[in-house]
Specification:
By secondary structure, the protein is mainly alpha-helical. The chain has one domain. The protein contains nine helices and three strands.
Length: 163
């Protein structure tokens, strides 16, 4: 696994908080995926990517952006790849399924806001996920009013301290 500290620093990530997140990722991935009985050998590539989840793909996206490409960050919405490719862009998935990010979102949102939405904002504004740092465009489904407002908040942030 490569040393990605330089790349993460150049992305403006909060390295101290990111290290805290990375300290729990291997255990979480191991508990959920690697401990599965009869895990197919065909999953080896997926397992390798997960082992360096904040390194391999972000490095590809950084290179793509250096060459003038745009990165579309997508949530669990179906966005046809053809539309993104036609825009000379590349897609990457965005996650909001970690309790780690909820406290960061709580600084901006009322306590009764759903944890998923708080995690989305926490991941972005706490600068602990490289995929949120690399996305030029965010595409999110509007399954609820809170998610629509949160997606719009990404586009409305203007300072690097917030983004």
């Amino acid at each position: 696994m490569a040393d990605n500290q330089k790349m993460w620093g150049e992305l403006g990530m909060n390295l101290e908080m990111h290290d805290q997140l990375c300290a729990v990722l291997p255990g979480a991935i191991g508990d959920v995926f690697m401990s599965q009985e009869n895990r197919p050998e065909a999953m080896d590539y997926f397992d390798m990517v997960l082992a360096d989840v904040h390194g391999l793909r972000p490095a590809e996206l950084v290179e793509f952006r250096k060459n003038g490409g745009k990165v579309f960050g997508t949530f669990c919405a179906y966005v046809p790849d053809e539309v993104i490719v036609a825009a000379d862009a590349i897609a990457t998935g965005l996650c909001a399924g970690s309790q780690f990010w909820v406290p960061g979102g709580e600084r901006y949102l009322p306590a009764n806001t759903c944890p998923l939405i708080k995690a989305m904002l926490g991941a972005r504004f706490d600068r602990t996920c490289p995929f949120y740092r690399l996305a030029d465009v965010y595409i999110g489904e509007n399954t609820c009013d809170g998610k629509k407002k949160a997606t719009n908040a990404y586009h409305g942030s203007s300072t690097d301290e917030e983004t």
